[in-house]
Each structure stands twice: as C-alpha cells, then as structure tokens.
C-alpha cells in the first residue's frame, strides 16, 4: 500500500467535488426536467447544472493547490497531477450523475438513499484518471483503502451536513 498521506491527498479533488454541490448547487436541473420512456426523470432535481460545474471547479481548486504543495507518486509531474485534479473532479460529478441515472431507472426517488450513492463517484473518478496515472495507484490495497474509507465517510459526512443544516436528509 502507498503512504497513507499520499492516498488521502489523492482523494482531495474527489471528496471536495462530491461534497461541495450541497452548498454550491441549486437552480436548473442538469436534465432540464426531461423524462425517459419509463416515465421517470433522466437524473432528477438533485442534479443541478450549478452543482455539477461548481463541484468540478471546487475539486480542481483544492486538487490544484494540493498539486502545488504535495507531489504525489501516482503522477509523472506537477502538471500531470494538476490535470488529474480536473479529471478526478469531473469524473466524480459524472459518476454522481451516472449513479442518479441508474437510481431513477431503478425507481428510487431523488434524495432517497441508494447503495450506489456511496461509491459510484469514486469508481468513475478512478476510471477517468486511469490514462494519466501510474499503475501503482491501482494497487489492490490502495483500492481497498479508497473504497472502505469512502463507504465509511460518505454516510458520516452526510449526517454531519444534515446536522449543520446544509442538507435536509441525514443520508
Ligand atoms: N447537488 C446539485 N448538483 C449536483 C449534485 C448535487 O445541486 N450535480 C446538490 C443537490 O441539492 C442535492 C444535494 O447536492 O440534493 C445532495 O446531492 P446527492 O445526495 O448526490 O443528490 P440527491 O439529492 O440524493 O439526489 P439523487 O437521488 O439523484 O442522488
Ligand atoms: Mg443523496
């Protein structure tokens, strides 16, 4: 397994991109209200354009600062790490939307908890950054660490965001 701090710094753009839409989001939904032939919304009102763009930008900013301060062994140089921050943040929001797409197809209302909520964004972010990263990033123990930490932190942070009044529901 890589150094613990390396793994945590790597996760910064992903976690920032995933959590910031709760505060930055709102306004027009990403699917513009469109429905598929199954009668359900494509993504639902929980996925907004502002949340998508704001979350991606916030991930780039924090991941970019990390790239300046803390070089990661998973990337060839600081430029590559900076590019990776963009790809990871964008991948996180794409994964989040893909999760909602699947959720809607499964007939789960927006805002209701669903198993994919906790992990889909991580999986897609890791897939998106594959062309930019060293193979050492995908060591099995690293992936296990990412998955376990995310599955623990996601419900915990949602609960805290709910208590802080940022989120209406505790999941
Ligand atoms: N959010 C947003 N735009 C996004 C993602 C999230 O505006 N692209 C905001 C919404 O206010 C959303 C909140 O962040 O309600 C929490 O996000 P999330 O839990 O991912 O969405 P849900 O509301 O649970 O909707 P879904 O069931 O589609 O996951
Ligand atoms: Mg949710």
General description of the model:
This protein is mainly alpha-helical. Helices cover 60% and strands 0% of the residues. The chain has helices spanning 4-19, 21-24, 49-69, 78-105, 120-128, 140-163. Helix 1 (4-19) runs antiparallel to helix 3, helix 1 crosses helix 4 and helix 3 runs antiparallel to helix 4 (78-105). The longest helix is centred in the middle third of the chain and has 28 residues, at 78-105. The protein is globular. The mean pLDDT is 95. The structure holds cytidine-5'-triphosphate and magnesium ion.
N-to-C series of helices and strands: HHHHHH
Helical fraction equals: 55-70%
Number of strands: 0
Helical stretch count? 6
Radius of gyration: 16 Å
Structural class: mainly alpha
Low-confidence stretches: none
List its traits.
binds magnesium ion, mainly alpha, globular, 171 residues, binds cytidine-5'-triphosphate, 60% helix
In short:
The protein contains six helices and no strands. It is an all-alpha fold.
List the SSEs and their pairings.
Blueprint: H1 4-19, H2 21-24, H3 49-69, H4 78-105, H5 120-128, H6 140-163
The protein binds cytidine-5'-triphosphate and magnesium ion (MG).
């Amino acid at each position: 397994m890589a150094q613990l701090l390396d793994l945590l710094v790597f996760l910064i753009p992903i976690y920032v991109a995933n959590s910031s839409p709760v505060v930055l989001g709102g306004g027009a939904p990403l699917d513009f209200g469109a429905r598929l032939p199954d009668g359900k919304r494509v993504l639902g009102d929980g996925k907004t354009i502002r949340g998508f763009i704001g979350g991606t930008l916030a991930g780039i900013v924090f991941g970019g600062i990390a790239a300046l301060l803390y070089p990661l062994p998973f990337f060839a140089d600081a430029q590559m790490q900076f590019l990776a921050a963009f790809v990871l943040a964008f991948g996180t929001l794409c994964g989040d939307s893909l999760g909602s797409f699947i959720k809607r197809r499964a007939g789960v209302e927006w805002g209701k908890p669903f198993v994919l909520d906790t992990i889909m964004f991580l999986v897609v972010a890791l897939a998106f950054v594959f062309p930019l990263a060293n193979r050492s990033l995908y060591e099995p123990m690293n992936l296990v660490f990412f998955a376990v930490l995310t599955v623990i932190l996601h419900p915990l942070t949602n609960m805290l965001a709910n208590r802080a009044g940022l989120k209406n529901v505790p999941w």
